[in-house]
Every structure is written in C-alpha cells, then in structure tokens.
Design a protein that fits this description.
8 helices; mainly alpha
Length: about 200
C-alpha cells in the first residue's frame, strides 16, 4: 500500500493528497498517518509547501467525513426506532439510550466530533451519529475541519522532522490501532453477554 500511496502523491501532488484523504475517511484501512507523513517528507525535500499540504489534507478529511455525516443525515433519527426495537439487542441499545445520545449531541456534539478526530481507530465513525442526530451541517464541518487540521499538522510535521525514517512509525501506529480495535471488539462482546434491557 505504501508504494501505491507514494506513486499517487508524486503523480497528483496536492490533488493526490486530497483524494487520498477523502478515500482514507470513506475506506478507513488507508492510513492518514502514512498520507500526511509522506506529504511532510515531500515538504522537507522542497517538493511541496506545508500550507498547501495542510489545506489539501484537511479539505480531503472534511469531505470524507461529510460523506458519512450525510449517510446518517439521510437515514435520520426517526427511522432508527423500528431498527432499535428490532435489533437493539445486538447493538445493546434501547430507545431511551438513543434519546440520551440525541440529547448529548444536541448539547455537546461539536466537542464530541472534535475530540474523536484524535482517536486512532474511530475518527471517521463519529460522523455517522453526528448526521443521525441532526448536528448542524456548518457546526459539523467547522469542528471536523478544526480537529482534522490539528491532526494533520501533527502528522505532517512528524513526517517533515523524521524524513525517510517516518515510515518506521508504522511499526508502532499499526499495532496501536489494532489494539484499539481488538479492545473495542472485546468490550462489545462483554457488553453483549452481560446486557439486559431495562424496559
């Protein structure tokens, strides 16, 4: 995958960065750490400018997240009730839990979206409930872009500082993301086994 990302960045420049960051958020197996890290390396080599790299990366991230927001927005909060009534056991949810999430997004949606931008495994997935619970489009886009910009600055400057050694970070980031995913699966299985509806 690294060679494919490298070829696309070198062929497409900032457009390649933006396109890859859209893909990374629509199909999460493509790592943003790799994309923006390589971009940072190219800045260090004088082949890209940091401000344009960050603009392309942040726009791509925001567009990719907006895709999942729109999926949630089209599904809509109201259509959830029959799904929760029928399949709530597998999601370990009751309708009162969904109403509580709706209130949470109504009060703190922007903070939730912003904070999730820094989690290694679930940065994109927060966009779906943000759309489901009708977080405002502008609020979602601004907080997503803000969180994405900070994350992209960290990754791009890491690539810039570490140069070609940046790819060594993948040895640590890959396992860290895997640990988060495995932990989430274990937590879900435990919750599924112990969950009892309150109704």
């Amino acid at each position: 995958m690294t060679d494919w990302v490298l070829r696309l960045i070198d062929a497409g420049g900032y457009w390649g960065i933006g396109f890859l960051m859209v893909l990374e958020n629509v199909f999460p197996p493509i790592p943003s750490e790799l994309i923006m890290g390589i971009g940072g390396i190219r800045v260090g080599q004088g082949r890209m400018a940091m401000e344009w790299l960050l603009l392309a990366g942040t726009l791509g991230t925001t567009i990719g997240n907006y895709f999942w927001y729109l999926v949630g927005h089209m599904l809509g909060f109201e259509r959830l009730k029959p799904l929760v009534d029928r399949y709530g056991r597998w999601a370990t949810l009751e309708w009162r839990d969904v109403e509580a999430l709706d209130r949470l997004f109504g009060k703190y949606g922007q903070i939730v979206v912003f904070v999730f931008r820094f989690l290694p495994a679930f940065r994109t997935m927060i966009s779906l409930p943000a759309g489901l619970f009708r977080m405002g489009h502008i609020r979602f886009l601004l907080w997503t872009a803000g969180g994405a910009l900070i994350w992209n600055i960290i990754l791009a400057y890491a690539g810039f500082a570490l140069g070609r050694h940046f790819q060594d970070i993948d040895r640590y980031l890959g396992p860290a993301a895997s640990v988060c995913v495995v932990g989430a699966v274990i937590f879900y299985l435990w919750r599924l086994a112990t969950w009892r509806p309150r109704g």
